[in-house]
Write the structure tokens for this entry.
Amino acid sequence: MPARRRETMPALLMLAPFLAVFLLFFLVPAIQTFYLSLTESSLTRTSAFVGLANYATLVQDPSFWASLGNTFYFALLTVPPLTILGLLMALLVDRFTRAGPWLQGAYFLPFVLPISVMTLIADWMLQPSSGIVNHLLGMQRAWFADVHWAMPMVAIGTVWWTVGFNMLMFLAGLRNIPRELYEAAALDGASGFALFRHITWPQLKPVAGTALVLQLIASLKVFGQTYIMTTGGPYNTTRVTLHYMYETAFTQSDAGYAAAIATAFVVIVVLLSLLQGWVARRLGGSS
Amino acid sequence: MKYLCNVDRTVNGKRRALLRAAGLAALGPGLAARALADTPARGASTPEIVRMWTLLSGGDGARMRALVEEFNASQRAVRVESTTLKWGEPFYTKLITATVVGAGPELATIHLSRLPNLAGGGVLRPIAPAELAAVGLAGGDFLPRQWAKSQYAGRTFAVPLDQHPLVLYYNKDLVGKAGLLDRAGKLKPIEGIDALTEAFRRVREATGKPGMTMESAQSSYAIWRLWLSLLAQQGLPVVADGRFAYGAAGAATLGRIAAWFNAGYATPGMDYPASTSQFMGGNAGFMINGVWEVPELVRGTEKGTLGFDYGIVPLPKLYGNASAWADSHGFALPANGERPMTPAKAHAVLAFVAYVARHSMGWAEGGHIPAYRPVAESPEALALQPNAQYAEAAHNVVYDPDGWYMGAAGPLEAIASKFLPAPLAGQLTPADALRRFEAEAVRLLRKRPPLY
């Protein structure tokens, strides 16, 4: 079938760079990580094959479960606001034709900051004695040293930092909705919230589903923010799973166990994403 | 937490010029000439390059930079190129990872408390007695305690540079108001933890200012150092035979430290810079800290910015003896895996190390107690102020216990620094903090020492 072949070859050629990168930098390391998790290893040397021993330790390791709890807590604090705020911002940008581009720029700007800059800004603003937040509130609270406030503050910083990306996604979705739908509805006398409920939201649902899944994965992958802003403190109450994995590998030179943490975490994240996608599709299908 | 000496200080011009002059004067027939003679004939225009990684920052960093510059100026056979890296966990992680793949430097400053970890893990290369002899050094040139800490499995893995114990600083104005000085203006002897607590209370009541300051924020190492000292004063090790060995005294001792903060004699939650500036600003009667803050006080006094008279005493005997935590800096040669260094390079490296040892009087001015005996026991060093006030501390030092997980910014300290400060801010009870510390650290005790 020469016709089919004519299509296959260019397709493969165009896919090749991606496949090469995917194999080299994802699939092979992932398999290696899994193998590493079955061994007792320091940073560079493997001293013994231990089978599933690392996993047996893992399920009984309170530090692992605590770090997982912290990770989910962070996701809970960030995923809903990031998705909802992203949507609201997109609606605002879309609504105001003249101020829109300016708003879009302002909302997106924090996203371009490197994580070190973003955490520095947050740290300055939240300083106990000199920070603007305490100044405005008339307090001297050490936010990042406070058991109750440390994680919410990291979450607020993260929302401010990354919400611009979700806004762009929703904006793209909004701009794909045919204008005729709105015109037709307006002729029928619909306005305001009714337009949103019956036209915008149903058309935007697939985008919202994607945004949620992407955001969930991004939030579960949190590391830099807590590592820099709180170093996992106070007493590990903000230490997330990737941070625990980092400490296990690099501070304690236990690469085998760290690989087990990584593998278990990947499995959990994949399962959750699948579950969320399934729920989103169910909800989408029922309307 | 990551700071041993983080306040930005520079050696003042005058002292620096003096140091340089001293360096040049000592050059003469000394080792620089020998280094020249021993280096293979590559010509003076192509010196042997020695790359050094150092974790010394602040005043220590400035002093080490001055020593490197003076050494480079003193001869042309060897050129030391020094890179300063962030001290603590990041430094050691980078040293270990770089060295195992053969990309480490030729020379590194380390803490001797990390030797079981670094030498045991294969990160360092042993230094042969003959190599030391070639630059005019021998084990007997160093104070026995520090020399012993430089040995691992019967071989030398580091050349000790100094010792820096925990001491008690006091502000004579504030402490005087509380009636704690004798007629000569020195701190009346304090013995027993109740007496020290009472001293803190009296400063607080007499002056309205905190009696004491020390680093106490989350991720502080200082609490670990003090706790370790006080346990040693009770004859208790933290770890013995692979188990936590402090028993009920652990929580009780941590509770005594926490009580200072809970009662308002000290401010909880202060990070390192905040705690030192509280003392330097004349806002605390006492400060518990390492001797590395000495140069800042000397400088403040010289410049007239300090605003008060100060004194320093060894950490008092609060329980059975006067043990005080200490650590030592030392020079070590990274193993660099499959790329061992040439004899010529090793000679060049050790020539620099010997130079620094012979010129460690300048290092002593950083508050440290030099490890090189001809300097440490010289009349100048013994008379050096304020070092002479706490010289006694050297006889009662206690290092981190041996163990691959121990030592400065090591795995166990990293865990301790998370939990031990929590009771100071009232976030956890001492018993709860230690329970959590043990729950996480016990895995380290059970694990085989890693070979990196």
